[in-house]
Amino acid sequence: MVLSSRTFCAHVIIINFLLLLSCNMVYGTPTDIFCLESIKKSLEDPYGYLNSSWDFNNNTEGFICRFTGVECWHPDENKVLNLKLSNMGLKGQFPRAIQNCSSLTGLDLSINKLSGTIPTDINHILEYVTTLDLSSNDFSGTIPVGLANCSYLNSLKLDQNQLTGQIPGQFSTLSRLKVFTVTNNLLTGQIPNLRNISADSYANNPGLCGSPLPACQAPPSKSNSAVIAEAAVSEFIVCHVN
Ligand SMILES: *[C@@H]1O[C@H](CO)[C@@H](O)[C@H](O)[C@H]1NC(C)=O
Ligand SMILES: *[C@@H]1O[C@H](CO)[C@@H](O)[C@H](O)[C@H]1NC(C)=O
Ligand SMILES: *[C@@H]1O[C@H](CO)[C@@H](O)[C@H](O)[C@H]1NC(C)=O
Ligand SMILES: *[C@@H]1O[C@H](CO)[C@@H](O)[C@H](O)[C@H]1NC(C)=O
Ligand SMILES: *[C@@H]1O[C@H](CO)[C@@H](O)[C@H](O)[C@H]1NC(C)=O
């Protein structure tokens, strides 16, 4: 049977239409699905919590909303509201892929074995986050100043890590912050002016000071003998070089 040119054209149009439709199904709404797939791939999951629940083969609308730890805006729409992956023994770095879950407002990765630094561009990864819990992991390095640009934050928990350096002074601009904890880290220096955060939130750091903890000491002025010793050392170096 030979197709007339008219039916052939109609077929081409229908096929194009179907292609367009399937393209939209593949590329239109998959970002949160792709986001969770990438997160799963990027984390070590030794106890199989994600492996047993995060099954990407069943593609019914809202299927990711049934995954362990995933809360959606609406149960039948693949848009992640909160991700709660606490106490799963997860290992690896901070899952940057979470940037593609673009409607996320809450992230709980507490009580895992995540390590490395907290990304410096975290404010671009978690733009609208209101609650962030990274406590009880092995995060090291400094607290990124960019967190001060996550202006919707009302709860930020960083306790029980290996964080060093100062608490960024810019945190005083986080006007919605109600809960802030950094206990059991290696932080030092002046605590910024965060309204209504109690001393408990800062406990067990070797060098934090200032309200609500005791005031910071002025650096001790050098004694004469120290100045003399220093001068002697630099003279020695000069002599040695010559
Ligand atoms: C993931 O789960 C499947 C079946 O549930 C199992 O066969 C597989 O070994 C698991 N993989 C890992 C890495 O735990
Ligand atoms: C896909 O997931 C939906 C919702 O969880 C469930 O009702 C349905 O049975 C699943 N389909 C398959 C083929 O697993
Ligand atoms: C976000 O998704 C895009 C593709 O849609 C991908 O190219 C990009 O690497 C993803 N971002 C992250 C941080 O994984
Ligand atoms: C935070 O926002 C301010 C003002 O918009 C901007 O100048 C600064 O570069 C941002 N900081 C980071 C780390 O993105
Ligand atoms: C500060 O904390 C106290 C007790 O927790 C509470 O009653 C008060 O409303 C808080 N003030 C502000 C400005 O949040």
From TrEMBL:
Gene Ontology annotations for the cellular component aspect, listed alphabetically: membrane
Signal peptide bounds: 1-28
Membrane topology listed for this record: Peripheral membrane protein; Single-pass type I membrane protein
Domain Leucine-rich repeat-containing N-terminal plant-type residue range list: 31-73
This protein's UniProt keywords: Cell wall, Glycoprotein, Leucine-rich repeat, Membrane, Plant defense, Receptor, Repeat, Secreted, Signal, Transmembrane, Transmembrane helix
The keyword Acyltransferase belongs to this UniProt entry's keyword annotation: no
Pfam families linked to this entry: LRR_1, LRRNT_2
InterPro entries, per database record: Leu-rich_rpt, LRR_dom_sf, LRR_N_plant-typ, RLP23-like
Subcellular location: Membrane; Secreted, Cell wall
GO biological process: defense response
Major localization class: membrane
Keyword ATP-binding listed: no
PROSITE patterns in UniProt: PROKAR_LIPOPROTEIN
Similarity remark: Belongs to the polygalacturonase-inhibiting protein family.
Protein's name in the database: Leucine-rich repeat-containing N-terminal plant-type domain-containing protein
